[in-house]
């Protein structure tokens, strides 16, 4: 999902309508593409099962170790 943006909000109807109006003026498409919605849902629900979380944790650990090894 790198580079894709998706989000949601909850709130009073008046606020949601104002946000919809603002968003529609900020992007070229009012609705999120079906593929992006599906990828966002899959990433949220299947990320840990598919091993992505473990892989990112390994990469993070390597970067942190490398940064700590730098002498100031």
What can be said about this structure in brief?
This protein has helices spanning 13-26, 34-46, 52-69. The protein is mainly α.
Describe the structure.
Helices cover 62% and strands 0% of the residues. The chain is mainly α. The protein has one domain (13-69). The longest helix is centred in the last third of the chain and has 18 residues, at 52-69. The radius of gyration is 18 Å and the shape is elongated. The two termini are 35 Å apart.
Please give a handful of descriptors for the protein shown.
72 residues; 3 helices; mainly alpha
Tally of individual helices = 3
Total individual domains = 1
Q: What portion of residues is helical?
A: 55-70%
Radius of gyration: 18 Å
Strand-residue fraction?
Answer: under 5%
Order of helices and strands: HHH
Give a quick account of the main beta sheet: strands, pairing sense, barrel closure.
none
Overall geometry comes to elongated
Number of beta strands: 0
Query: Average pLDDT value?
Result: 78
- In whole angstroms, the N-to-C terminal distance is 35 Å
Structural class: mainly alpha
Q: List segments where confidence is low: pLDDT < 50 over at least 5 consecutive residues.
A: none
Helix and strand layout, with pairings?
Layout: H1 13-26, H2 34-46, H3 52-69
